[in-house]
Amino acid sequence: MFVPFSSYKLVFWDFDGVVKDSVTVKSKAFVQLFEPYGHEVAEKVRFHHEANGGMSRFDKFPIYLRWAGQESSESRVNEFCDRFSQLALQGVIDSPWVPGAENYLRNNPHQQAFVLVSATPKDELERILLTLDLRKCFIDVFGAPTSKKEAIRMTLATRGIDPHECIMIGDAKADLEAAQANHVPFLLRRHETNSVAFANYAGPSIKDLTEL
Q: Which domain range does residue 62 map to?
């Protein structure tokens, strides 16, 4: 890290892969939905999802439905989003914590402001946080349809905070791009699923949040 993590006044958090080790839960849900259309389609979906972790499911499903030879109308996309939510919601809640994440969030040792920015739909994200008793840890929560880039931009504007006083912890290219677009420093949480996507990444990174 370029400066001590404790010196940042505000921390933007991604959720899947940063707070909960739930990336594979969502991969399995996508595969389960598209297995009826053939193993090749299901594997193509899995690979794309894991390479584009921060992309909203609302943007992914039109692509995947076309690959499966299905119509990608708004009603069909919404149907698949609902089915996906039913498959993934409890799995995310039950998935293991990223080591150190729960302790850091609940104890907030440096009295920082925490903002959650996720590609998960906002209402679903709020249900997850309520179940985990985490909502009180965040001063703001952003989910789809608000993009991560826009969520960070709005937070900086409404809070009147300098981008360099903030940091984004993420595990996907969308997280990195959202931080860069707003001139916010980025900290990568490395794991097996994002190793290929970040093979050439030379910025600061951690294996888990016990390193903070």
A: 23-94
Residues 143 and 203 in one domain: yes
The 10s digit of each residue's pLDDT in 40-96 is 999 999 999 988 878 889 999 999 999 999 999 999 999 999 999 999 999 999 999
Domain identity same for 191 and 127:
yes
Do 29 and 16 have their domain in common?
Answer: no
Q: Which residues of the chain have pLDDT under 70?
A: 1-2
pLDDT in the model for residue 52: 87
Q: What CATH number does residue 125 fall under? A: 3.40.50.1000
Model-level pTM greater than 0.85?
Answer: yes
Q: Print the SS3 string covering the chain.
A: CCCCHHHCCEEEECCECCCECCHHHHHHHHHHHHHHHCHHHHHHHHHHHHHCCCCCHHHHHHHHHHHCCCCCCHHHHHHHHHHHHHHHHHHHHHCCECCCHHHHHHHCCCCCEEEEEEEEEHHHHHHHHHHHCCHHHCCEEEEECCCHHHHHHHHHHHHCCCHHHEEEEECCHHHHHHHHHCCCCEEEECCHHHCCCCCCCCCCEECCHHHC
Please identify, among 94, 121, 138, the residue that sits at the C-terminal boundary of a domain: 94
